[in-house]
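Lab notes, practical 5.
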Amino acid sequence: MEVIVVCFLLSTLGRLPYQLEIAMLAIFSLICLYGTLASLANSIFRKELLPLGPPLLKATQEKADKTPPPPPCSIATSRKTSGLLSISKLLDAGGVCGIPTDTVYALAASCKHPQAIEKIYNIKDRPQEKPICICISNLEQLSTAKPPFSPLLWEFMRNVYPGGISCIVKKGEWLNKLGVGPAYDRVGTKESIMIRVPDHTVTAHLCNMTGPLAITSANPSGEPDSTHHDMVITRLGHKISGVLCDGESNEAVGSTVVNCLKIDEGTITIIREGCFPAAQVRHIFEKVKNSME
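Output from the prediction step:
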C-alpha cells in the first residue's frame, strides 16, 4: 500500500515512467477488486472467507451500551402496586422518601417514626421553627378520630378537600386516634396542626397503606419546588431512602395554606397562596358560612 501511495505522488508530480504507472494502476485495480469481492463474500456468509487485514482507520468512539451508574436511592414507579408497596415498606421502616402529590413532590416520613421526621429537617436544612404538616388519604380517615371541629369547619373542609389546600386547625388528643401519636410533638406547632388531603390517587393509596404521613416539599430549603421525580433524585437522592416516580407534577407550586383557627369567629386567613387561588378559597368559605346561618 505504501508503494502505491508513493507511485500516486510521483504520478501527480509527473515523475513516474509511463510503464510503471500502467503497472501501478493495474495492481491498484486488482487490490480494489479483491477488497470488494472479499467484503461481499464475508458479509453474505457472515464469516471471514477471504482475509482483509486490519482497517486503516479505527473508530475511537466509546461503546454506546455502557452500563449507567446505579441510582443514589431506591426507585419505584407509581404505575405499579409493587412500587407503592416498596415505598410504603421504606416509610414503615423509618425511611424518608420522595412522593408525588396533587401539587409538587414532597418528602414524606411515617408518623410512627418521629426520628424520620427529624431526618427531613436535616435533609432539607429546614429551620426547626418551620412546622411540618400531616397528610391523610381522605376526610373519612379524619372523622374516625372524632376531632372536636365545629360544623362550619367540617363543612368548609368538605368543600375544599381533597385538593391543593392545607388547613391549619387546633391540635388535640384526637391526633393520637388518627395515628399521629408518636410524632405528636414533631408535627405542627404546640397548639396547631396543618392537614393535607391531596387530590391524588397515588398519594391517597400510600396514606392508606402507611397511615398519616408527615410531609413537606421535596427541595433543599430556600430552593424551587421539585416538579419532576428526576429533580428529587438529583437534588436529594443521596440523602433519602427512595423516590416514588410519577413524572411531571400536576402543579408548579405548593398548596394554599389556610389558617382556620378562628373559623368559628367567622374568619379565615390565607397564610400562603399556592396553586389554589386565594379569592376562590374566600368565595367557598363565604358560601359555606352563609349556607349555615
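Observations recorded by the TA: The first helix runs from residue 2 to 12. The mean pLDDT is 89.
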